Amino acid sequence: MQLLFVCTGNTCRSPMAEAIARAAAQARGLSDLTIGSAGTSAWEGAPASDGALLVALEHGLALEGHRARVLSRELVAAADLVLTMGPHHAERAVALGGAGKTSLLTQFASHGGDSAPIADPFGGDLDAYRTTFSELERVIEKSLDRVAAERGRAGA
After folding, report:
1. What's the domain range around 104?
2. How many domains, in total, are found in the chain?
């Protein structure tokens, strides 16, 4: 299964989400889960922001090798599930062919109950990045719970 996280620049929220999800999937033994990220207005090849890099390091995750990718029709087509940070990211993913497999991350995590966007820490201090990281950890854990449960039902 291929999971794609989407934000605006692919330098803060979605790279942190990608790293968090990779670590959580590995801890859960979900070895067949492929995780990536992209941005609706990314500067192709840009590194993760300093804030994202530092906060990820505080949690033992490395973003040094991250390079931003622009969300494309090909990335959306390759993904089984597209999880976005805000509604405008979801609209763009759907416009690129992601109808039926795109959801706001918070909405997916809460089975449709929460539709709040994930706050963008770009330009903020480290505490803003820490707050976003913590929120991402919480909703990604719930999202992976849902993915595992739905896969278990499909395989039963």
Report:
1. 2-155
2. 1
Helix runs in the chain, H state only: 13-28, 50-58, 73-78, 87-93, 105-109, 126-155
**Does the model's pTM come out above 0.90?**
yes
CATH code: domain of residue 50? 3.40.50.2300
Q: Which residues contact 120 (CB under 8 A, 6 or more apart)?
A: 7, 8, 12, 13, 85, 86, 132
81-84 sheet: strands from edge to edge: 34-39, 2-7, 81-84, 102-104
How far apart are alpha carbons 15 and 47 in whole angstroms? 10
* pLDDT at residue 90 is higher than 90: yes
Residue 44, exposed/middle/buried by CB under 10 A (0-12, 13-18, 19+)? exposed
State whether residue 12 is helix, strand or coil: coil
Both tokens of 77, joined, read: 């087509």
Q: Are 82 and 76 spatial neighbours (Cβ–Cβ below 8 Å)? A: yes
Look-up: residue for tokens 């990220």? 37
Q: Which residues pair with 35 in a beta bridge?
A: 3
How many Cα atoms within 13 Å fall on the side-chain side of residue 142?
Answer: 16
Give me the active site residues, please. 7, 13, 120
Reply yes or no on whether the pLDDT at 154 is more than 80. no
